Structures are given as C-alpha cells and as structure tokens.
C-alpha cells in the first residue's frame, strides 16, 4: 500500500500528500497557460452558477500547498473551505480509503450495513461535547446534516418553528437557504423558502459592542415577543460563524442561549460544519466555553475531503424519529467513512488541536501588527486556525469589500490562496491546513502584508 501517488506536473514527476515540496513556486502567471486552456473548456461545459475563487486547476496537494497543472505551487490558506485540515492526501486517510475502495465501494447502509459507519458514529459519540448517551446519523453534505437535525428536533418536540441568527450560513438546500442569512449569492431569486424560520440578532462584538449576556437577552426578548418558546422546535447557531465572517460571539452569549433552550424545551443545535474537528484548537468550537449542544452537525473536516456529514445528538432526541425516517442512498458511504477514520487518526497522531493553537499564536500577533500599521483593518479575530480580518474604510467601521477583493487578488497573483467571507464581503478569512509548516505560514503572512501595502499605497 502506498501513501502517495506519482503525479506528472510541468514535465516532472511528483507525489501528492505531505511529501510534496513545501514551497511557494511561481513558474507562470496565475492562472498559467494550461489552466487558461482548461478554463475555456470549463466555461463551455460547466454552469455559470458554479463559480471558482481562483481558476487554477490543481494536479496535486499536500501539507500546506496546492500544485497546479502549470507547475505553480500555491500556499493553501483555505483548505478547500475548512475541509483538508489534515492536509490533502493525508497518509492515514489515503491508506484506509484505498483499502476500502478495493474491498467494496457501496452497499447503502440502509440496505446492508458495514462496520465503518458504526466506527464513525462511535468516534462522534466520544469526541463531541457531553458525556450523555448519543446517537448519530451520517449524510453527504453539511446542508443535508442541518436539514436532518431540524427534522429530528421537530419530531422530538412536536413543534415547528426554528430560530436562526443574523450572519448565519447553513447551506444551499431549500430549508438551509431559509436558515442562511445572506441574500447574494446564496438565496437571490431562489425562493420561496421554507417557512417557520425566525431570525434574531447575533453577538458581533466588533460591530455591536455588547457583552454576551446583553446580546443573549436581546435575542431572547425578540424570540419571546415574536415567536414564543412553546412554538419553537430548535435554535440553530454556528458557535463561530463561518461564511458570516468568523464572528466569535462575546463570552457568555452561547451559554446563556443554551440555558434558555434548556429551560424552555428548545433543542439547541450547534452547527459545527465549518468550526469542528480541531479547526479552532479544540475538537469542537463549543468546547471553548464548555457548552453542550443537544444536537451537533458536522461535515467538512470530518473526513479530510471525502464527502461525509453527521448529525449527533442526545439518544432520546435522535431515537424519537420513526424507523426509516432518516437516511439517503449515499449517507455514510463506506469510502467516506474510511476517510473519516483516517482523518481522525491523523488528528490524534499529530495532535492537531495543539497545532491549531500554534497557528493562532503565529497568525494573530502578525495580523495585529499589520492592523497597527494601517487604518483599514478594523478587527482581527478568530480561534485556532479559523482566523479573519475585517476591512473597513479608514477611520470608520464602514465595510470595505473593494479593498478586500484587491488584497485577495494580490495574494492570488503571488501564489497565496486566500478566501473572503462576511455579510458585507469585507472579511479575509484564513483556514490553513493544520499541517502547514511554519515557514509557509510566515511566508503567506509576508505576502498578505505586502498586499496591504500595495493595495493602500
Ligand atoms: C456552518 C456551515 N453549515 C453548513 C454548511 C453547508 O455545508 P455543505 O456545503 O457541505 O452543504 C456550511 C458550508 O460552508 C457551513 O459552513
């Protein structure tokens, strides 16, 4: 069994995975000529609605780099949106996936089961917050996990309303579009949306200046006045909002909401699709304030790039659903389960929680230094390797999406893959693979600093 695969790039052979040279290397303009050719084919064959952040076509990935078909090696500060936390083609994952593919690829767990599915659910019971009796169900995507978490909460409570928050992102299916806050590009013209979703204010310390208790009281007052606890099945929240701009709520906000849900019989759902699995320096972002959700949704980092998602919840809630009420053809596919077990093995072996904290300790001081030198960085925030800066017009808190786009374009031209986020499109978000070496992280920060200098000169 090999850990890595030989790949032909720009006339030479290389291997994907961690043995890929950990360097930034620019051989052509970005995108290079081979990528430009593929882009033409892409535009003739792929729907416009499916867009690309950076149209370089990837041949190999591993550690902290992505290598494109022109031979350019980019520093990856996005992890495919918080997915490849263990790095691309992580050896433990590759080994288990290869073995599983060779054994069998699919039976449908609802038809004939297999052990990998159970092992993943056992890991979820061990790793997710709380030592209560838990059950899990596996799905393909984060949105599907969220949809199913709401189904479970509705059955278990006999209630219908769902509370979601400002700046929330929960997916692109019909119910999850209703839960997602931002119109463009996620919801525009796609309505009508699912009913019985009520949105309340989030704690956004940079913009609202409120402490956690006050922010929670404001949200709860709105809930009480406009919905009524006895009508509410679930409250769903990202402990750190992802697409919304890595907003870390003020301390005490989440615990107060959990207490309120407990008192009123509302199912508290933590959507940890983006923040889960070592990303913030804990197994789950809920762990930072010791909160225990009734249900937690996970995906992305869980399986290092194989499509897998999960709903894990209190046994009495999960088992309230009638037999056959949950499932799907591919949910918990055996190859994806093997990927998850490999990814979790890597997280443990390499202590990636600790590594995420180290990444925070490298990134936050450097970004704060940059903020001190310019008046366009309004806020530097985040936990672990989920770090963001919010860009504003000088001397104000007015969002500056134009500058954000310029900084990102500069980084891309220099071979550093950076993503944006935020309701106002003015947040640079950094989600490096947790296995990125320090020298690449520092080099990426150098380029980001240069991007600020170039864009504000
Ligand atoms: C918090 C959160 N929930 C749900 C989703 C939807 O996940 P998917 O894109 O796998 O459907 C995302 C995706 O970014 C997310 O960040």
Strands of the widest sheet, in order across it, are 6-12-11-10-9-7-8
State the end-to-end distance: 53 Å
Strand content: 15-25%
Give the mean pLDDT.
96
Count of extended strands: 17
Main sheet overview: 7 strands, mixed
Please count the helical segments.
14
Write up what this structure looks like.
This protein has helices spanning 33-45, 79-82, 91-103, 115-127, 142-157, 174-179, 205-208, 212-226, 253-264, 315-318, 334-349, 352-373, 401-413, 438-456, and strands at 6-9, 12-15, 58-62, 65-68, 73-76, 134-139, 161-165, 197-200, 232-237, 267-271, 295-298, 309-314, 377-383, 386-391, 416-417, 419-421, 427-430. The chain is an alpha/beta fold. Helix 8 runs parallel beside helix 9 (253-264). The N and C termini lie far apart (53 Å). Residues 81, 141-143, 146, 169-171, 238, 242-243, 271, 273-274, 299 line the site of pyridoxal-5'-phosphate.
Question: What is the secondary structure topology, with strand pairs?
Answer:
Layout: E1 6-9, E2 12-15, H1 33-45, E3 58-62, E4 65-68, E5 73-76, H2 79-82, H3 91-103, H4 115-127, E6 134-139, H5 142-157, E7 161-165, H6 174-179, E8 197-200, H7 205-208, H8 212-226, E9 232-237, H9 253-264, E10 267-271, E11 295-298, E12 309-314, H10 315-318, H11 334-349, H12 352-373, E13 377-383, E14 386-391, H13 401-413, E15 416-417, E16 419-421, E17 427-430, H14 438-456
Parallel strand pairs: 5-15, 7-8, 7-9, 9-10, 10-11
Antiparallel strand pairs: 1-2, 3-4, 4-5, 6-12, 11-12, 13-14, 14-17, 16-17
Bound molecules: pyridoxal-5'-phosphate (PLP).
């Amino acid at each position: 069994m090999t850990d890595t695969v030989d790949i032909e790039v720009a006339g030479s052979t290389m291997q994907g995975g961690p043995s890929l040279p950990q360097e930034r290397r620019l051989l052509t303009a970005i995108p290079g000529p081979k990528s430009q050719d593929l882009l033409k084919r892409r535009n003739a064959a792929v729907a416009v609605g499916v867009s690309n952040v950076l149209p370089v076509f990837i041949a190999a990935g591993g550690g902290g780099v992505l290598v494109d078909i022109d031979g350019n090696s980019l520093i990856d500060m996005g992890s495919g949106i918080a997915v490849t936390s263990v790095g691309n083609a992580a050896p433990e994952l590759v080994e288990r996936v290869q073995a599983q593919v060779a054994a069998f690829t699919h039976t449908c767990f609802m038809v004939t089961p297999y052990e990998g599915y159970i092992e993943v659910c056992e890991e979820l019971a061990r790793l997710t917050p709380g030592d209560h009796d838990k059950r899990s169900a596996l799905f393909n995507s984060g949105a599907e996990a969220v949809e199913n978490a709401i189904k479970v909460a509705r059955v278990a409570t006999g209630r219908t309303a769902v509370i979601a928050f400002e700046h929330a992102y929960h997916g692109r299916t019909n119910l999850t579009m209703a839960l997602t806050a931002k119109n463009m590009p996620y919801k525009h013209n796609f309505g009508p949306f699912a009913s019985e979703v009520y949105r309340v204010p989030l704690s956004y310390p940079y913009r609202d200046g409120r402490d956690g208790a006050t922010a929670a009281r404001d949200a709860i007052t709105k809930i009480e006045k406009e919905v009524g606890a006895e009508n509410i099945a679930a409250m769903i929240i990202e402990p750190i909002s992802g697409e919304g701009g890595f907003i870390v709520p003020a301390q005490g906000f989440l615990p107060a909401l959990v207490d309120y849900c407990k008192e009123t019989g509302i199912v508290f759902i933590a959507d940890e699709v983006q923040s889960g699995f070592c990303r913030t320096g804990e197994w789950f972002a809920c762990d930072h304030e010791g909160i225990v959700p009734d249900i937690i949704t996970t995906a992305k980092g869980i399986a290092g790039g194989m499509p897998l998602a999960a709903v894990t919840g209190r046994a009495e809630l999960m088992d309230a659903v009638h037999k056959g009420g949950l499932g799907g053809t591919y949910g918990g596919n055996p190859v994806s389960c093997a990927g998850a077990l490999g990814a979790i093995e890597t997280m443990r072996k390499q202590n990636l929680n600790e590594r995420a904290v180290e990444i925070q300790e490298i990134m936050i001081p450097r970004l704060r230094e940059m903020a001190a030198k310019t008046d366009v960085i309004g806020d530097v925030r985040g936990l672990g390797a989920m770090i963001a800066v919010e860009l504003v017009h000088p001397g104000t808190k007015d969002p500056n999406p134009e500058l954000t786009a310029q900084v990102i374009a500069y980084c891309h031209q220099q071979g550093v893959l950076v993503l944006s986020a935020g309701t106002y499109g003015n947040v640079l978000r950094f989600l490096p693979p947790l296995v990125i070496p320090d020298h690449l992280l520092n080099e990426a920060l150098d380029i980001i600093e240069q991007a600020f200098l170039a864009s504000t000169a």
